[in-house]
Amino acid sequence: MRNSGIYKKLDAIIIDEISMVRADMLDNMDVFLRINRDVDEPFGGVQMIFFGDLFQLPPVVASNFEKEYLSEKYETPYFFSAEIMQDEIDFEMLELNTVYRQDDRTFINLLDNIRTNELDWDDLEALNERYQPDMPDDDLYVILSSRNKMVQEINDQKLAEINAIEYEYLAKIEGNFQQTIMPTEANLRLKLGAQVMFLKNDPDKEFVNGTLGIVSYLDHDLIKVKLTESSGTPKEISISPMEWEFIKYGIDDKKPGEIKATVQGVFKQYPLKLAWAITIHKSQGKTFNHVVVDLGKQGAFEYGQTYVALSRCTSLEGIVLKRKLQARDIKVDQRIVEFLEDKKRF
To answer: 138 and 230, same structural domain?
Structure first.
């Protein structure tokens, strides 16, 4: 099979956010690696290393057909229900216990109770003390919403409310770089005072992916953003366009024993996006000092949604609830609880 040589060179594959990997996808990986490595062993004999918290967001099942297909073939949509995980392999589970995002033990315990659905009435009352129907007007707050449409509407409305000249910045695209993988808008619209989020780590360590700031200066070829350092000191930095590469890997014809990376396309744009609001899905993996959790009138509709939203914040004091949480907003899939309990017995 074409490019099969690259897969024969693999020693290990690391998959992050394993909670979001569907069972059928893992079975597909198994079959693919067996064929391309010509080794009839689980995953073609490659060591598989999974990282993730199963109590966070589950795999995406996008259509009724996918839902019906998964329910007929698998016990659950999670990776651990894949056929390859049932009989052919056993794996060792290691639990990491050090928390880096938060340092307040009371808040950590509260989050852990939400995570495992052991929240009691006192915990819920403590959380709902953060209820504040009006948006705070101090500090940088980002609204975490459960729905894409709501996020788009908030960002569009906030930008429209700013009485200032709107600037547009067009991305430069070279080669093959599909729209579906673009990290930000190809046509980025900004105004002075807009709240933005950085989408890349800065080599000079001025910002990281997820840093929030306020646009403080705009010109056709220059953007400045005001940030607040961890010490509380404000600073203004100049932003230049950055590049994202779409890379294809293959065997180096000149060096058959080595893997060659070939750039297929380049996307060059300012590493920013409007960020008065982002979806809870997009917030997974990020850290914020201040968040507004807006689950809407319908509340949480997905397992782990409320836990992910609240645990993005570094402190309980940094959380604002758009509406009070109810017990039904704490959704934990009992199948995950049973799987983890079973693994811990051995």
So the answer is: yes
